[in-house]
Fold this protein.
Amino acid sequence: MNYQTFTLRNFRDIPQLKSFTEGELFDIEVVGNILPFKTNNYIIDELIDWDNYADDPMFCLNFPQRDMLSPEHFEAIAELIRSGADKGEISKKANEIRADLNPHPAGQLEYNVPEYQGEILQGAQHKYRETILFFPKQGQTCHAYCTFCFRWPQFTGLSDLKFATKQTDHLVGYLREHPEITDLLITGGDPMVMNAKNFSVYIDALLEADLPHLKNIRIGTKTLAFWPYRYVTDPDADDMLNVFRKIVDHGMHLAFMAHVSHPVELSTDVVKKAIANIRATGAQIRTQSPIMNHINADPHVWSDMWTKQVQLGMVPYYMFIARDTGAKDYFSIPLVDTWKIFRQAYTEVSGICRTVRGPSMSANPGKVQIVGVSEINGEKVFVLNFLQARKKEWVGHPFFAAYDEHAEWLSDLRPAFGESEFFYTAEFRKMLNINDDSMGIFAEELRKCY
Ligand SMILES: *Cc1c(COP(=O)(O)O)cnc(C)c1O
Ligand code: SF4
């Protein structure tokens, strides 16, 4: 199958859009100037239900929708397009609007940058003790874009092999100095957009370095959903599968972390073949996804998804709560509703599917799970728990927040029982070096960090 993409430039050529009204096409064009927009022939031909496209999760995942923007933002771009403004003008306005939608990227950028030999380690994040995140420069794009994604401004073109080699040398050096790291999580964009040859530059260097403490290589990717041909008919499909085999044969665990948003992504013959091919290398596929309004805010979608995943030999891993999206109001769900969806789905499946953890917020102090809603001494509370934390002692230590039916993120929550801080707050503040001379200013600063 030949890979064909559609973006703002050529989306009007998509055959299924021929029946769209000019108004519908205009909406896509306006919103597509602000939010990421790229889709491909597989998603269009195999995943979207065109008879119900307006409510179709894959359509909403890939095609910008009018309601994803506020009326003011929408009108600002619409007016420029109507008046025939040039590209530069539109993109200037679009950038202003994007800055307005700024998603507070959970303090990731400022606080987790590792250093090697006095220099910043390019394209890496080391937040949790055992796991380092690595963003290979050549994997900074995807086979299609999710409309909710805010990582896409960092998507760039491919860089040269020389840069890749230098990036890998430094990563290996850093890993040598950090024997506490057991996991390398290769992410993007999507690292599986790389061809096998470029990907093996990174892998060969890691295997040759022979680091006994490095046990697990994880690959975070959306390719099973967006382009499963990557592991079936692409010219270097076999070469990529052989790189996987090489990792496994080296005695490492290869965790293929598949971003799966909806069961329809697991329904085609080609995705089933891709899953089988990946598993045949000895890799283990785990699945994770954010929960999003209009995409998968339904317990049956999740129970169906987990059941299918297990049937296909995948292990359900995480349900995420997302905050860093541009079209926040369109996709967001109150924490209490997210928990209800998780719980209902969890009760509908057997124990074998309950390897999934969540719903979890990747906030600055750590991954915070909504365990549930309870009542203690007459006060309604959220029970929370760190699944992962900046300080390992925080993990598995339940804590409580005052119940709030509108809360959508950790920063919306206050400690229960009239306490002024959560159990970890003082230590967290020290870690971030936030000056607490004025509690008022501190509280504001801290909230921004969540
Ligand atoms: C989620 C995450 C990890 C991996 O956490 P696990 O619980 O081990 O899957 C690592 N680094 C960052 C920054 C993360 O957000
Ligand atoms: S596949 Fe991942 S990185 Fe790419 S657009 Fe979707 S969420 Fe963003």
